[in-house]
# Entry
Amino acid sequence: MANHALMANAIRALAMDAVQQANSGHPGAPMGMADMAVALWGEHLRYNPANPHWFDRDRFVLSNGHASMLLYSVLHLTGYDLPIGELKNFRQLHSKTAGHPEVDVTPGVETTTGPLGQGITNAVGFALAEKLLAAEFNRKDHDVVDHHTYAFLGDGCMMEGISHEACALAGAWHLNKLIALYDDNGISIDGQVKPWYIDNVAERFHAYGWHVIGPIDGNDAAEVSKAIAKAKQSTDKPTLINCKTVIGKGSPNRAGTAKAHGEALGAEEIKLTRDAIDWHYPPFEIPAEVYADWDHKAAGAKTEAAWNDKFAAYAAAFPELAAEFTRRMKGELPKDFHQVAFDTVVAAHTKAETVASRKASQLALEAFTAALPEMLGGSADLTGSNLTNTKSTAALRFDSKTGAVVRTEPTEQHPEGQIGRHINYGVREFGMAAIMNGVSLHGGYIPYGGTFLTFSDYSRNAIRMAALMKRRVVHVFTHDSIGLGEDGPTHQSIEHAASLRLIPNLDVWRPGDTAETAVAWAVALQNQSRPTALLLSRQNIAYAAKSELGDISRGAYVLSEPEAVGLKNKKTVAVIIATGSEVQLAIAAQKLLADKKIAVRVVSMPSTTTFDRQDLAYKKAVLPKKLPRIAVEMGCTGGWWKYGCAAVVGIDTYGESAPAPELFKYFGFTAENVAATVEAALRD
# Structure
């Protein structure tokens, strides 16, 4: 029998030693949750340290990511490729043990956590993906998708509003394989939480539609293990296990206090703690018998081998399903994707429709969702405005009694019916964004979701996390400017395009017609290592005539030369750069200037972020060095000066409530004003 006390004390010792050596970190939570980790990792979690990515492993999320030394200790002790030297380098440059866990940096870490509440929300995404993949791919006697998602979370996660958004959805979706263990220690940075956190957590989660177990003694590994075993029996609801713990457990003078939370214990207190927990070993030294109790390499290999045999039998019985499952879990697009993308863009160009770019997005989605069954869409209660639904993406629904995924009516093509692929997230922008991150991290689906661009502020930190984690997630942001009209400045996006473009590794597209929108979607779907934000108009946009389509995917291209407006032999004297609906203004201004024999080039720049990655030669070809540049965009002007613009037609104040055509005139978004701005720049 494993010695639970020694196993837990190994975590406590490693946590306090690593934080002390770094002189930075959070020892209290790892010390308090050590017994919870012993119960979960020692007796329930299905994993293989030698292969952190085998598909049917259980997923573990440390939502209170400041407790990273808990996770690093367990990964080291169980046999992952995380040697003791990495724990000694906790929080040091280029180590695998960053201050908060980072996916793709530390083996065994499933998601990057730190901003509280997002981890539990990612876990909801993991559990949703598992449930949908199981419904889609499992067959009788062949349950190849069958794993749990576990999350540790603390008071901070509970207080963050995003946990409400996500946990309410988890209940509505009957995610019975989601098990959350709440570290209820009653302490946050400012001290005892009672003056500012009086939620009845049990009643709160009962209201969400969860099972609730406890409170139990979270410092008793056996009791925690029994609770987990009970939670695993749920067939219709997620489970919250309320674990009462003592922060800094084992420390004679810091246990149960805020002092244990976010600072090193100090050499003297560590010495006292070692004596108190009967741990008489030097820093970072773990006795062989404790390593033996924690070691999961042999058991993990056996568990994975059993699943490999199960999948081999599945592949023999259902070869096409197995091949499709393998493709999707690798994140690869179908072999005919490039042809689908090409046909979609060419069709948009051929039809040359005048539609809002939000409608252009839906037209592209009709083609892409039909060809890519892994596309999982949704909207934050704005489906009719975001136009994220298609003929191929029925609404996702769950049986209210059994919790099972509901299928559509059978058809000849789909005799078993189809699983809905469009999610009604409700008014939960932040929750939607972080759930999509979890879905993407899990694998098997490419998530996309819609809301108004102004409400990207609600989603922003989850968008940032997707960019940091390099995940393929697509945000559909409609109503992208003052062009939405009467709703007024509360809804009119001014600073949002510029703000989103500042997020590293986020691709931002503001397409100007149907072809550019189709290209934007094609590029987004191919972006395996970065998220994408599509900024789309409410108002209709005329199609811009093009001589060729190949350069759109480079983020900016020459749309119209002076020859197109009758100035064949006139030297080009300026470049107008425009995005989105303002491309039409640039074209109209080019014609007005041509009437005055002023030759200008029009460059459409649907994606500044993509254009910025192009080689210097291409950039110079699109934006010749000696020509004055004038940018046009219904948004903040600040970001455009980096292109060496002589002038920017933009808006650096909030909007007004009025019909869109009146607003365009009021704020100077007219062809006449753009032309006059070019002339003024040339005079200067």
